[in-house]
Amino acid sequence: MRLRFLALAASSLLLTATACASKEYGDSPSDDEVEVPNPEAGDIPLPDRTACASLTVTAGTYDWNVDHQGRSRLYRVHVPTGYDPTKPMPVVFSFHGFGSNEVEQEQLSNFSALADAEGFIAVYPRGINVPELYGQGDPDTRSWNGVACCGPAQINQAVNDVSFVDRMLQDLGTRVCMDPRRIFASGFSNGAFLAYRLACERAQRIAAIAPVAGMLGLPDCNPSRPVPVLHFHGTADEAIYYDGGTNLTAVGGTPYPSAPESVRRFAERNGCTGAQQQTYQQGNSTCVAYTGCQPESATASLCTVTGGKHSWPGQTQYNDGTPDLNASLEMWRFFQAHPRP
Predict the structure, then answer these.
(1) Are 164 and 68 in contact (CB under 8 A)?
(2) Where in the numbering of this chain does the Phospholipase/carboxylesterase/thioesterase domain appear (predicted)?
(3) At residue 298, what are phi and psi to the nearest 5 degrees?
(4) Number of C-beta neighbours around residue 140 at 10 A
(5) Residues 144-198: pLDDT tens digits?
(6) Which residues contact 41 (CB under 8 A, 6 or more apart)?
(7) Which tens digit of pLDDT belongs to each residue from 118-157?
(8) Are strands 300-305 and 60-68 parallel, antiparallel or unpaired?
């Protein structure tokens, strides 16, 4: 599997060219018969859906585009086998890492196959790169504005990936029958930073998150409701250090907390006052959850891979991902148990 590490490339720092508009890919479908969220509305719940009508998308994998901040932004969607366009279905966003893309994230997470087996819609958005922002430079610099991390999207603070997610949700609601109470976010590395940011800023839209190898990068995170978190991280991660670090400052990022601290901060916000409880242990992988949360379902959990590198647990073809823990399967089980109230 060809996947890049978190690239510390000089090209991602030389952001001096003038910005240009990216290629247009076509318009979104009409929303005349579908109630969809206003992408400018901010952190408010999406309208409930008990059924859908007039939706024609069938099972398959699609690349769709939306206009956002004057650019055409792409996102890939896998609609699973057995999808019924009249019945609301869960949605799982999976954000790629810095220097990667939506195709590689689909391969890394294996969510499309899992979606077919379990029945959810998998969404793989594409981050923005240097050429799209400045007209020239390395195209393999796709990234997200995760506040502390990473690449051109984070260095250029005008990139608003939170509102990009709002815009995708608006568009997605015109195409597929999604359940607004079961919208989840996961991500790898830089994408995990964005998943944490969504939990902080879109708690009314994102039911729960499952970051992999990325931290809480927002220092003033104040979610509007308790958001369940399941975090995966290797202790030997050479890109985003398990114990936190300042290594991202060399590429325009900021210091970030450790994996245990990222989870602890959410446990505190979720009112968790009970003892930590082990929920999984196999080989080099152990998961521990905070208890006594308010509500009890708003737990914050950390799965630690002892000796694990910058990898996706269960994906052994990339950077020695452990076979002792299947992150994709465990996060789906976690998501199933944590719809938005």
Answers:
(1) yes
(2) 88-244
(3) -85, 55
(4) 16
(5) 999 999 999 999 889 999 999 999 999 999 999 999 999 999 999 999 999 999 9
(6) 166
(7) 999 999 999 999 999 999 999 999 999 999 999 999 998 8
(8) unpaired
Structure tokens at 122: 């998998």
Decide if 116 contacts 85 (C-beta within 8 A). no
Q: Look-up: residue for tokens 């999604």?
A: 178
Helix or strand (DSSP H, E) at 130: helix 130-134
Q: Scan for tokens 């499309």, then name that residue.
A: 112
pLDDT at 6: 45
In the chain, where the domains are located: 50-336
**Is-contact 26 65, C-beta < 8 A?**
yes
Alpha-helical regions (H) of the chain: 102-109, 111-118, 130-134, 151-155, 161-175, 190-201, 259-269, 327-336
- Whole-angstrom distance, CA of residue 85 vs CA of residue 88: 8
Q: Could you give the angle at the alpha carbon of 320 between the alpha carbons of 317 and 326, nearest 5°?
A: 75
Joined together, the tokens standing for residue 136 give 């020239």
Residue with tokens 């984070």: 154
pLDDT for 276-292, tens place per residue?
Answer: 999 999 999 999 999 99
Across all residues in the chain, what is the average pLDDT? 90
Q: Return the biggest CA–CA distance within the chain.
A: 53
How far apart, in whole angstroms, are the C-alpha atoms of residue 136 and residue 333? 42
50-336 sits in which CATH class?
A: alpha beta
